[in-house]
Design brief:
Layout: H1 2-13, H2 19-23, E1 31-32, E2 36-37, H3 40-44, E3 68-73, H4 79-95, E4 99-102, E5 109-113, E6 118-120, E7 128-133, H5 140-151, E8 166-168, E9 212-213, E10 218-219, E11 223-225, H6 240-249, E12 261-264, E13 267-270, H7 294-300
Parallel strand pairs: 3-4, 3-5, 5-7
Antiparallel strand pairs: 1-2, 6-7, 8-11, 9-10, 12-13
Helix pairs in contact: 4-5
């Protein structure tokens, strides 16, 4: 019985993947910050490509007209894979005023393909705009991460004010990966007066791009919170601040369902998103009360185990 439980959760736990680790196997010249595509001509036009930011987001030219993203899904996807992508879109639609519509003849659209990783441009770049979601990327939190890039959001840990909230331990970063922690200049992004969000789906985990310590037999931490009691985890659900930023970005009308923020100095406590769904593909009720899997259950099977 124990072996059965172990094997079940071995597959189950494997579902927690980091998109930047998937992308490490790809060889794309204009890929930056783990999963952000940049225009090749912009990449070549500056002396230090590591200082390149993806999109100047305060410009209206990279906004999606009428908050509508037209898209096509590659025929490479199987029906269940298409369903996963569309469900991630629908979840964003229910929480914001953005819409995802299948393209007919529109000039600007997302060309969602099963390439060799998980990556996207930030904002609208015009024309046929590639977004890659390979088979290893088809989890709701990864799909939503890339969709938020396409809508215009950057990584949370690259905010220009991030040093007030986290310490990046560059000595623990894998050699050659330091540029993934570049701060994006204040004249390139607008924070909309939103507090730093450790729970953002756009925030990488504490060991992102960490080098492996063979003595300790683990990856080293690359990001540490500056305040006690805070952890930087793999965030697999949209936070309420993620949704708040999207609503500001899209100038969405306020709704009664929006959560209230309780400010405490530099840090902000937010009510959790009211979404209630399982992250894992297979959740079983008989595992809900097995102590050894308690933490995994709370992270991946909250609906099946009635934790939300």
């Amino acid at each position: 019985m124990f072996l059965l439980l172990y094997l079940t959760f071995y597959v189950f736990y494997a579902n927690s993947v980091d998109l930047f680790e998937i992308n490490e196997k790809s060889n794309i010249d204009n890929l930056r910050y783990g999963d952000v595509l940049v225009k090749p001509h912009r990449y070549q036009s500056i002396s230090d490509p590591h200082k390149l930011s993806a999109v100047i987001k305060e410009k209206g030219s990279n906004r999606w007209k009428n908050n509508t993203l037209y898209y096509i899904l590659s025929p490479q996807y199987h029906p269940e894979e298409k369903k996963a992508i569309v469900e991630a879109m629908l979840h964003l639609e229910t929480k914001t005023c953005f819409k995802f519509v299948e393209r007919t003849t529109q000039k600007d659209y997302l060309n969602i393909r099963k390439e060799d990783g998980c990556y996207s441009y930030v904002g609208r770049v015009g024309g046929k705009q590639l977004m890659s979601l390979s088979s290893g990327c088809l989890y709701s939190y990864i799909i939503q991460h890339e969709l938020l890039h396409a809508l215009g959001l950057e990584h949370e840990h690259q905010r220009h004010d991030r040093d007030k909230y986290i310490k990046v331990k560059f000595k623990n970063v894998e050699k050659g990966k330091e540029d993934n922690f570049d701060k994006i200049s204040s004249h390139l992004i607008d924070l909309y007066d939103q507090p730093y969000d450790f729970k953002s789906i756009m925030h990488y985990d504490s060991k992102a791009f960490g080098r492996y310590d063979w003595n300790k037999r683990r990856k080293l931490e690359t990001m540490l919170p500056l305040k006690d009691g805070i952890t930087i985890n793999d965030n697999i659900r949209l936070s309420e601040l993620d949704l708040s930023k999207l609503r500001i970005l899209g100038k969405c009308p306020k709704t009664a369902s929006e959560s209230r923020f309780v400010s405490k100095g530099q840090y902000t406590k937010v009510e959790e998103d009211d979404s209630c769904y399982d992250i894992a593909d297979k959740c079983y009720q008989y595992l809900c009360h097995v102590d050894v899997y308690r933490e995994l259950i709370r992270k991946y099977c909250i609906k099946t185990c009635k934790l939300c």
